[in-house]
Amino acid sequence: MGEKYGQHVSMEFKSSPLISVIVPCFNSGRTIKRTILSISKQTWFKKEIIIVNDGSTDQFTINTLKELRDQKIVKLINQENKGLASARNKGVDESSGSFLFFLDADDWIEPNGLEMMCLHLMRNKKFGYVFPDIHLEGQRRGFIEKEFNFFEQLFLNQIPYCIFISKENFINYGIYDENMKLGYEDWDLNIKLGRNKILGKRLPIPIFHYDVQDTGMLLSKSIRNHIKIWKSIRIKNSGIYKINYLLSEWLLWRRKTSTYPLFVFFLWYIILSFMPENVSLKLFLSLRSVNMFLKRIIFKRNLKD
Question: Does residue 181 fall inside a structural domain?
């Protein structure tokens, strides 16, 4: 299942880089200890954990964060509530590592996750960042395996937020847009990176555990505003959504692995450009529901097998 990596990193890389793990937190006191424990148990020794408390109001969360800080497990940064994008950027500003990894306060990773991602990126130097397969937890179960295809990424957010990237690439070509209050700031970041030829490489191992709660406010808000967010991304990156650019990218990526046939996105582009937003949103939500239903059936069949 994917590549195998040694347990003793220092034997292969005499000068192992420091990895900064950025964990934004807003009232996530009941899950963040699990998240931090998964990071602290990593086989990659040179790491720092930076929690950015994004103005939490829940006293249990505040007490939990103080406890973690007092145990000297993490570096705790407090700020007013400014949103997920701002919290991640603040964590980067306070980081000392040459590599960054982003992990939310309700998710967790396997003990060798940082090691595998770092070595995978080092061995695939033409790529700008790495993302792992996803192990779904919570209200949905299963696995998500996505190959990077930049043309597809221009229309659908196909890769997880938890990318492993050099700090240099993130600062020079990325940075989260703090004005994106409706979500999908990671989608916007990936498009920005791809526009600058900083491309992603899949790590085909589900080391990332993603806790899915369909009632989650940010998730629901992002889905309800999917079309509006995509249109704002298109306006910000207008140059790469011109038909000539899209055709050139399609020619470049058409033979690469994708989740959906790439020609479909030209039709989707026309629908999004000319159909009323409320109608195109209903179509998107219907297609999403069908897709999720089929994935559940496939997952249940695989369990029986």
Answer: yes
Q: pLDDT higher for 140 or 144?
A: 144
The verdict on residue 128 lying in a domain is yes
Domain assignment present for residue 176? The answer is: yes
Lookup result for tokens 């940010």: 218
Q: Token digits for 219?
A: 């998730």
The number of distinct structural domains making up the chain is 1
Which runs of E-coded beta strand occur in 55-191? 75-79, 99-102, 108-109, 129-138, 142-144, 164-166
Question: Going by C-beta distance under 8 Å and a sequence separation of 6 or more, which residues neighbour residue 289?
Answer: none
pLDDT band at 5 (very low <50, low <70, confident <90, very high): very low
Supply the mean pLDDT for the chain.
88
Instruction: Say which residues have a Cβ less than 8 Å from residue 274's Cβ, sequence separation at least 6.
Output: none
Q: With CA atoms as reference, report the closest residue to 51 among 15, 102, 8.
A: 102
Distance CA 70, CA 75 (A): 10
Q: How far apart are CA 218 and CA 161, in angstroms?
A: 14
Supply the CATH number for residue 96's domain.
3.90.550.10
Tell me the backbone φ, ψ of residue 33, rounded to 5 degrees. -65, -40
Distance CA 230, CA 155 (A): 7
pLDDT classification of 12: cutoffs 50, 70, 90: very low
Please enumerate in sequence order all residues whose Cβ is within 8 A of that of 20, keeping only pairs 6 or more positions apart, or say none: 47, 48, 50, 91, 92, 95, 96, 97, 99, 100, 101, 167
Rounded to whole angstroms, the Cα distance separating 62 from 286 reads 40
Question: What is the reported pTM?
Answer: 0.87
Is the pLDDT at 4 greater than 50? The verdict is no
Domain with 173, as residue range(s), is 9-217
pLDDT for res 285:
66
> Across the chain, how many H-helices and E-strands are there?
13, 9
Angle formed by the axes of helices 217-224 and 277-304, nearest 10°: 130
